[in-house]
Amino acid sequence: MLKTPYLLFLGDAHDQLAAKVAKGICDWRPEYAIGQLRLPGCDADVGLPDLTLEEARNAGAKTMVIGVANRGGVISETWKDVMVEALESGFDLASGLHNRLQDNPHLSDAAARHGQELIDVRVPQHQYPIATGEKRTGKRCLTVGTDCSVGKMYTSLALEKEMKAREMNVDFRATGQSGILITGEGVPVDAVIADFMAGSVEWLTPDNDPDHWDLIEGQGSLFHVSFSGVTMALIHGGQPDALVVCHEPTRTHMRGIPNFGLPTLEEVRDLSLKVARVVNPDCKVIGISVNTSALNENEAKNYLANVEEQIGLPTVDPYRQGAARLVDALEEL
Amino acid sequence: MLKTPYLLFLGDAHDQLAAKVAKGICDWRPEYAIGQLRLPGCDADVGLPDLTLEEARNAGAKTMVIGVANRGGVISETWKDVMVEALESGFDLASGLHNRLQDNPHLSDAAARHGQELIDVRVPQHQYPIATGEKRTGKRCLTVGTDCSVGKMYTSLALEKEMKAREMNVDFRATGQSGILITGEGVPVDAVIADFMAGSVEWLTPDNDPDHWDLIEGQGSLFHVSFSGVTMALIHGGQPDALVVCHEPTRTHMRGIPNFGLPTLEEVRDLSLKVARVVNPDCKVIGISVNTSALNENEAKNYLANVEEQIGLPTVDPYRQGAARLVDALEEL
After folding, report:
1. How far apart are CA A242 and CA A273, in angstroms?
2. Domain named D-glutamate N-acetyltransferase-like N-terminal: which ranges (chains A, B) (predicted)?
3. Inter-residue contact B229 to A233 (CB < 8 Å)
4. Which of A52, A63, A193, A245 has a Cα-to-Cα distance from B104 of 20 to 30 A?
5. B residues 173-202 lying closer than 8 A (beta carbon) to A
């Protein structure tokens, strides 16, 4: 869907966190990212060479990816000029901003004039079918979570990295805007029409080799009332053979809905399994992935050990420790 | 949303079943339906006077409702002429067909020319918010099912009828095209963008009087892999105080997906409650509604008695027996 390699546009990002998507590309697809473009006032740096548009084009970059989230998702005036210039220089533009590139007349005019593409990854690119639930060949692993934004994408990408290192037959399947920008393709499930959600996940993870694994990026949580329907569709459309439960241990309430406490890991394990077994009776939870970034080394070690004893499944922080033990568990299935 | 009363367009319906929507309007909103319009070859009859467009206008009809589903959901040539004529005569047109009225240039031209509206009830009419899960005042009852098309809308409408007869404070809340055409308003949840599904249900069932009941029309089934995400959003967006489990006893597999058997009533009860209690810890299943239309009187009686003994909850066919016992259970809550 997106032409690689990328020039990463950081704009005037006010801090490193605002450049999360660019950071994700550098972490997981470093071979796609050949430089960064920063405007005056930018306080983010993903450690790539600062390139002008011309330098980036000469180095082979084909798409300028908006690797930054700004307040309100709007395209500011200062951004617009560089974006038009990029289109004039022969770049496609790709963005996950709320405000669509295609709805900006300056950008759509420039894109049409120069034969370049504007790719809004929040916008579904296909007419997806209604899910059939038919058993597909190949194997699938889905990340589920106690909450939104607890590390489901990160966990799936860490699994992919370890499985590729072991030369396993594997694909990461992006289901959100960051995942799509990082890997260049996928389905923005939360932007799909309700009737076709599960079908879009089936479409994303079709029949494959018997030894092939799709690593499906999870979304939301069965316990997050705003987005649980999306999670449900990912489970029923994904017909996973394996689930990894993801968690962030310092979260005091569900993201964005302060009246809701987090479910326990056991609750997420049990409900996810019950629901997954409707479509795949052999589905298993194979491990727990904990985002321990808010804990120090010792706290993290203790927390992971405690959870492992409590749940009886391999429990890792894939950032601190890699995903090897989770992949071992997948290989044992 | 729809202007009443209606003229019901039956077109060239090849049998009574094809006129299901018109039949639903006659059953549940007889005061909205002042006549039927049938074309040559029509084999359906909903028992209303056959009126010409002119007669219907003179009798006060404001909207011609396409009360018939034809093969493929297309608007045939024979229909088109009458539809254009209806617009010319001052009718709005309302339809739940797959092919949108608004996408037909003959119809959109005629509507614009004569200042009439084309209402495609499959198309969401609002920008719905993201669900917050905040506790709303008033009470809500949602129908859930072992499968699609087992009588959830019918059950909710039968509850409404009985509650209105008891002068209770109640509203039926339509969530599908038939329900919207029958009652003139609602949200077509399965056509809403995934992220906003639960929010659209919150929007549909806002704060209300403490003694007020919203009767929310259920969709799909938590066990139907094609549409379970929609069901989930209805439960979490609806934050029901009461659930009624709906079932059709002769179904041998889940509708449209022959490899899937039906869940038991206990499975639907337990999973629905577990999920509903995330958003409303006091939620209860108050009864079972069985569509016994495929059984004879005696079979139906036995079946209902057996289920009632098995589950220990009031079990009725609201078509055969009315919904009084279910409403008794709601009043006891």
Report:
1. 9
2. 40-124
3. yes
4. A193
5. 189-195, 197-199
